[in-house]
Amino acid sequence: MTRVLVPVRYPLSEHSRRTLSEALRVAEERDADLTVLHVNLYHRGSEIRRTDLKRTVEKAFGRIRNARYVVRDGFLVEETILEEIAATSADVVVIGRKQVGRWRRAIRRLVDDPDIETFLREKVDCELITVG
């Protein structure tokens, strides 16, 4: 079965809602499992629980078939997302345009002209969908 991963902020921003909406569309279209991911950043001290994330998403979108809610702790959002992509063997990752900018800055430290999709394809074999 196809696996779709969508990283979101908590509480859901308008941008996260649009990104999640697109991920839901993709998951439904492909009859895929959906993983909704939030990263608790150590330096921000927030402790969002999986049940908080699930409750908030279901309040906004209703109960989602084949959904899994994951909250990971990490120092860098990008690194934690990459780890989750690998751990879940995600086939599709749906991220917001703001997230692409953050990835670009992180990757720019490693290479001169970052192409996020190419970078992700080299690190993990998945499709990347960007939501504006």
How would you describe what is shown here?
The protein is of the alpha/beta class. Helix content is 45%, strand content 24%. It has 5 helices and 5 strands, in the order E-H-E-H-E-H-E-H-H-E. It has helices spanning 14-29, 50-61, 77-88, 97-108, 116-123; strands at 3-7, 33-41, 67-74, 92-96, 127-131. It has a 5-stranded parallel β-sheet with strand order 3-2-1-4-5, with helices on both faces. Helix 1 (14-29) links the parallel strand 1 and strand 2. It is globular.
- The count of DSSP E runs of length 2 or more, i.e. the number of strands, is 5
Element-level helix/strand string: EHEHEHEHHE
User: Would you tell me the structural class of the helices and strands?
Assistant: alpha/beta
Largest sheet: 5 strands, parallel
Strand order of the largest sheet: 3-2-1-4-5
What is the average per-residue confidence, as pLDDT, rounded to a whole number? 86
In whole angstroms, how far apart are the ends?
27 Å
Stretches where pLDDT is under 50 for at least 5 consecutive residues are none
Helicity range: 40-55%
